[in-house]
Design goal:
Elements: H1 4-9, H2 13-29, E1 32-36, H3 44-51, E2 57-63, E3 70-78, H4 81-89, E4 92-94, E5 97-103
Antiparallel strand pairs: 1-3, 1-5, 2-3, 4-5
């Protein structure tokens, strides 16, 4: 399948593989949550250990590339929809600090200091007092 001869004889095949990869990524992200407010000393191991009390959990803590320090947020992947939904309904404390959890909203320019991706729930801009300013 890797030869250029096969690829030239089957030009649609790369698109199928790209679609399968996108579907696999979307499926994985459906069981992912955002975790904010992490203390600087929280690691993948401590986050995994905490969320493992609810079921299988695979986490990662986002780090600053230049300094290697935690950026104060991360993500947790689950394998069970019901476990993830239960986790989202509870309050959590990791390494002695309260943290926030929310459904993963996809990749983008998340600003952990602002606490959102620039829009409030329902797609209304923050600071608009609940008025849809898009129209």
């Amino acid at each position: 399948f890797g030869s250029s001869r096969w690829r030239s004889a089957h030009p649609v095949a790369p698109h199928l593989w790209q679609a399968r990869a996108a579907t696999a990524m979307a499926g994985r992200d459906q069981l992912k949550i955002f975790v904010g407010g992490l203390p600087q000393h929280t690691t993948k191991a401590t986050l995994d250990q905490y969320f493992a009390q609810y079921g299988y959990a695979d986490s990662y803590v986002m780090q600053d590339k230049a300094t290697g320090r935690s950026r104060g947020f991360g993500f947790v992947n689950f394998t069970d929809q019901m476990v993830m939904e239960a986790v989202l309904q509870m309050s959590h404390e990791v390494d002695g600090c309260p943290i926030t959890v929310s459904p993963y909203a996809g990749s983008g320019n998340y600003n952990p200091r602002a606490g959102s991706r620039g829009t409030a729930a329902g797609g209304l801009s923050e600071g608009t007092g609940g008025v849809d300013t898009a129209n």
